[in-house]
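Annotated sample (chain length 124).
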Amino acid sequence: MGKKDFGGVIRMRLSTGEIIPLRGTLNMSTSGIASEAVTNQDGSVDRTMTPTARRAEITFADRGLDHNKLMQSDRFNVTFIEESTGVTHYFTRAFLVGDPVKNRITGEVTGISIAAEAYRKTED
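Output written by the structure step:
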C-alpha cells in the first residue's frame, strides 16, 4: 500500500516506548548524501558529495515534555509508523538537534530535527 499512498495517522515512538504525538508535517532526509555542483574554470561542471546525517524534521504537541532533558538525552532509536499506509521508518542511534520553539497559541513545538546514524524503511 505504501508506494502510492501518503499521509494518514503517523506515530513517533522512541526506544524508551514513549510516544510523541506529531502535529503537522513530517519531513525526512534519508539518503545520507548531499551533493553540490562545482563549476570549474573551463566551464565544465563537477559534483561533490558529502556524507550527511539521516534527518527527520518534527513538529509535535506541547504536552509537558522536558525539552532541556530531551535535547541532552543519550542517543536513542526512533520509529515512525505510518498506520494508514503500512510504512515504517527506523532512525537508529539518533539525537535531537535544533532549538525547540513553543507556540503558546497553537500548542506546537517546532525547530527540532532528529539526526541519526542509520535509516531503514519497511513496507507491509
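Annotation: The domain at 10-123 is CATH 2.40.30 (Elongation Factor Tu (Ef-tu); domain 3).
Annotation: The chain has one domain: 10-123.
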